What does this fold into?
Amino acid sequence: MNFGDKVGASAAASPVHREYTLVAEDAELEIAPGEVVKPWTFNGTMPGPTLRFTEGDNVTIHFINKTPLIHTVHFHGNHDEKNDGVLPQIIPAENYTYNFIADPAGAFMYHCHAYPTSLHIRMGMYGSIIVDPKDSEVLKPAKEFALVLSEFDPDNQDNFVAKYYPVNGYIDQYMGENALKIKQNELVRLYVINIGTTIPYSFHLHSTVFKVYASGLPSNDPIDAQTIEIGPGNAAIVEAVWKSPGTYMFHSHGFLEERGNMGAVRVLSDGSGEQLSESVSMIDWQYELQKELQKPTVIDYDNLSGSASAQSHSSSAHGGTTVKIVKGAWDKNQRDYYEPAEITVEEGAVINWINEDGVVHTVTSKQQGLFDSSIIAAGQEWQYQFAEEGEYDYYCIVHPWMEGIVHVE
It folds into this structure.
């Protein structure tokens, strides 16, 4: 059974055991009209599918890494160390099975925890989790939506202020015809998570004061709010009712609302006054709309090695000059990444890069397609022969602040 069989399932239908598959895949997808990006994803979308359990479920997550980089799945909530998604780090073409009891009830998130974690998150490796209370009386019947607030900068993922602040992976996707549609006086429940890496989101609904379960936990007493601050890595369950028909905005206060963090709720007139007898999930609809807008294309990699071994591009070359990828090179604050960072060799020379760091790296030419080591695991090496004179700038795809230069005379 894969994730799609259970997205949006009701608490009443919850089995004792639930089984899902998450696949780390690189993809090309659209994040804004005409803006195609290449994120790292779970199951080809950004965010990945919403996972839904009931409190007390025995959950199995099969994780498969189909990318050239190391990834993991870290789950918010209660679980033991081996299911925390930090260690082991799952190398290319390998898989890992997580198993835990869904606990406690609330709105949570999952994301990659490979190093540097903030980059893996910003690059798209995240999704939402909903754990329904085992006691069906804890939350009243409502129309339900999931909102994942994130950030993405196709120009530079290190920018503190990102170019885009999408909701569910596409800017302003709930404006116009795709507004969230509800009925007048109908209880609406929003599972809101902030997967961003920089600032709190001040989440705001127009024309209503709403109730909030802080940190997305129904165990907390709800408070009345006009705007609720949700910090990076945190969540909120928001419940609202609109008394008058109309179209009302929702967004995060600040510059984010001008950069994609804007949506609308369309409240339809309903004179019946009938209330929902059970919750209605719109999360399936949201995910289908997301895929329709993003138009994702998964990137398939040939000859992906489970051992992540680096292969030489110069089988005839022997000897050569050594460049070390130094210990701690993954840390942006260290500043020393390669030793030496700048090197001069003669035409035809071979350079051997040795990874003395504890995580994976690449040696990739800034001139597209010229040379690329793919993954160099800890303790491994890769070599390349420079056949022509010139100046060759290179960097690490996983840690793009790592830069070096080769002068060939």
Notes: Residues 43 and 293 are 16 Å apart (CA to CA).
